[in-house]
Recover the amino acids of this structure.
């Protein structure tokens, strides 16, 4: 069996119950680390570790939410709509359908900042 490093990392991540909980929770609404900690019933430090890995692997996107009082904090949203795992000819290939690419994300963030 051969897989590339990214496929191995994604499969490892998706094998973790907490990662799946975070992905499911953030597929409904963007949530802060504190909200994820409460919803998943795990320590905030665990959420931060998992979220960091998930953002690095494009499973989540981090956004800055600006409050009416001017304060701000990060919220996380699922960035993947569909994951395909193909096993063929001795290889495993993973394809992810992400919600938006970096250019789209930058445009959306810029618009949000400008409109605030």
């Amino acid at each position: 069996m051969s897989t590339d490093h990214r496929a191995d990392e994604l499969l490892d991540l998706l094998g973790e119950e907490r990662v799946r909980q975070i992905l499911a929770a953030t597929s409904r609404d963007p949530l802060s680390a504190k909200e994820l900690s409460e919803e998943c019933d795990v320590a905030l430090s665990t959420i931060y570790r998992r979220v960091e890995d998930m953002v690095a692997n494009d499973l989540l996107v981090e956004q800055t939410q600006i409050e009416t009082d001017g304060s701000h904090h990060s919220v996380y949203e699922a960035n993947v709509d569909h994951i395909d795992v193909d096993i063929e000819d001795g290889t495993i290939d993973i394809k992810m359908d992400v919600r938006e690419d970096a250019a789209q994300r930058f445009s959306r963030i810029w618009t949000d900042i400008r409109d605030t």
Observations:
- The mean pLDDT is 87.
